[in-house]
Amino acid sequence: MRLTPQQLEQFDRDGYLFFPGQFSPQETRVLTDAVPALYARREVYNVREKGKDAVRTNFAAHLYSKPFATLARHPRMVQPVMDLFGEPVYMHQFKINGKAAFDGDVWQWHQDYGTWRNDDLMPTERAMNVAIFLDDVNAYNGPLMFIPGSHKRGVIDAQHDTTTTSYPLWTIDGALITQLVERAGGKNGGIVSPTGPAGSMILFHSCLVHASGSNLSPWHRVSVYLSLCAVSNHIRRFKRPEYIAHRDFAPIELLPDDCLLKDYPVALPWKDGMPASALETSSVPIDRSMQAA
Ligand code: SIN
Ligand code: MN
């Protein structure tokens, strides 16, 4: 899938593109059917909501689940990002966010690149998210909220919030969010929430300010996020475990467009368990650690 000049212009202006119904119900079902068994695993890569059993986010399924390994190489998700960056991309992070009915907690206002820079020493913002809805998303089940155009502000000051939810995040304070929303149009478009059927896709800039509320509805809101990084922009520090911030900078090789419906071989390196090295972390930048070795 190639982006049109009009889409490129829209992405530059708003910082995101929404593709309702990008994947068919049949394709989406292949992914949705695999989620319960993944969430049932008692593994460190399943981060549960604070004080609850519901999975908030599952990491790195593309390394141990065939349907998600396939999605990680899907041209409809990956090609547009390669085109935007004009170079190959690798998988920096892979998440299946649960946002479970009744239990799904908030994601505070943040920019993803803030975390990637502060924690992982990713040199520039040449990385972005592509998300696919595995459930219908509506106004009630905690849809993503974007501040259109906020990516133009570059990296915004953030504080490391380690207490609000079960997952630490570099978050932006309310005063700054108020300003950004006002500048984006206030009540007239200063916040937008793409909603639509399962199978819809969103591509958004790593500096786009976003959040989502809790899910008090009876409907799950499972979504998958591929965080794709230009290969030349790979992270320079392994401060977070490998199942959260990947260390394999090899370019993603695309599968054919029908890959979710036909059988293509994919590597599943963590199929029989995560290597112990995936839990090892270091606060020393990798270039320097290589020099020291
Ligand atoms: C995120 O910002 O990484 C996740 C937000 C969400 O799933 O609502
Ligand atoms: Mn985010």
Describe the structure using short key phrases.
Jelly Rolls; 293 residues; binds manganese (II) ion; 12 strands; binds succinic acid; 3-stranded antiparallel beta sheet; alpha+beta; 8 helices
3D architecture notes:
- The chain has 293 residues and is α+β, with helices and mostly antiparallel strands.
- It has a single domain, classed as Jelly Rolls (Sandwich).
- Helix content is 23%, strand content 19%.
- The protein has eight helices and twelve strands.
- It has a seven-stranded antiparallel β-sheet with strand order 1-10-6-12-4-3-2. A three-stranded antiparallel β-sheet has the order 5-11-7, with no helix packed on it.
- A hairpin with a 7-residue loop joins strand 8 (159-161) and strand 9 (169-171).
- The chain binds succinic acid and manganese (II) ion.
- The site of manganese (II) ion has 3 residues, from loops.
SSE order and pairing:
Layout: H1 5-14, E1 16-19, H2 25-32, H3 35-39, E2 46-48, E3 55-59, H4 66-71, H5 75-85, E4 89-97, E5 107-110, H6 112-120, E6 127-133, E7 144-146, E8 159-161, E9 169-171, H7 174-183, E10 201-205, E11 210-212, E12 223-230, H8 286-292
Antiparallel strand pairs: 1-10, 2-3, 3-4, 4-12, 5-11, 6-10, 6-12, 7-11, 8-9
Manganese (II) ion binds near residues 110, 112 and 210.
SS element count, helices: 8
As laid out across the biggest beta sheet, the strand order is: 1-10-6-12-4-3-2
Percent in strands: 15-25%
Molecular shape: globular
Query: What is the CATH homologous superfamily assignment?
Result: q2cbj1_9rhob like domain
CATH domain fold name: Jelly Rolls
Question: What is the domain total for the residues?
Answer: 1
**CATH top level assignment:** Mainly Beta
End-to-end Cα distance: 43 Å
Tell me which CATH architecture applies here. Sandwich
The helix/strand order is: HEHHEEHHEEHEEEEHEEEH
Unreliable runs? none
Sheet with most strands = 7 strands, antiparallel
The structural class is alpha+beta
Number of strands: 12
Identify the bound ligands.
succinic acid, manganese (II) ion
Rg over CA atoms: 18 Å
